[in-house]
Amino acid sequence: MSLILTAAYTFLGLEDHYHNTIAPDLLTLTYTHLPPGVERTKRDIKQRLREWDDSSPYHKNRPLRGPRGGDTLRLLNKPRTFRNVPSLTGVTVHTMVKGALQDTGYLAVAGMAVQSITGVRTTVCYSKKSVAPFDLRAKRAIAVKAHLKGQLSYRFLANLIDVVMPRIKEYRGAKGTSGDSSGNITFGFTPEQVTLFPEIEGSELNIKSWQ
């Protein structure tokens, strides 16, 4: 009972810490002040796709080029107010199971491990393309994932920050380049680090068997 109460207090404390400390600081650092009378919805949005310079006859009637720095259009940043302060919207736990190439039974073990960590039923992911060097065929079950929202995401994040990460020896944290400039941050753990979760440690699940 004490363990359950401690876990509940931890993730509730993390959520309160965000609303009371992190959210006001983010608003202060990123607030965009507009003078009274200026409509926030109407903005001068410049063309993000580039035109060709007609230096070659092959440039004629071609579609616009992609943006500088990448082929993907970034999300438009709206003026920051108290209504759209960055917050945690969800957590996705995903793992690729190499052993599923030979035996799909490995997905069951991986699904139980991810489900025990997140408390959410997992879904199976299928490959989209065939990769001959890896003996991978299209539409083949190869991974499992679980998506968390609401209090489940705060509970998982609190468990990750307060229990798992401090127990990793010489852990340097997530890289600063792991984000995609659209609010998504991605980082991973080794099989040995996954066993540090309280739900996995001491159980009969063999993490190394499905890696």
Please describe what this structure looks like.
- Among the domains are: 1-30 and 80-87, no CATH class; 91-171 and 186-210, 50s Ribosomal Protein L5, Chain: A (2-Layer Sandwich), CATH 3.30.1440.10.
- It is 28% helix and 9% strand.
- The chain has helices at 2-30, 106-118, 151-164, 191-194, and strands at residues 91-96, 123-126, 141-148.
- The chain is flat and about 60 Å long.
Condensed summary:
With 211 residues, the chain is α+β, with helices and mostly antiparallel strands. It has helices at residues 2-30, 106-118, 151-164, 191-194, and strands spanning 91-96, 123-126, 141-148.
List keywords for this structure.
211 residues; three-stranded antiparallel β-sheet; disordered N terminus
End-to-end separation in angstroms reads 34 Å
Q: State which percent range the strand residues make up.
A: 5-15%
Q: What's the total number of strands?
A: 3
Order of helices and strands: HEHEEHH
CATH class identity of one domain: Alpha Beta
Strand order of the largest sheet: 1-3-2
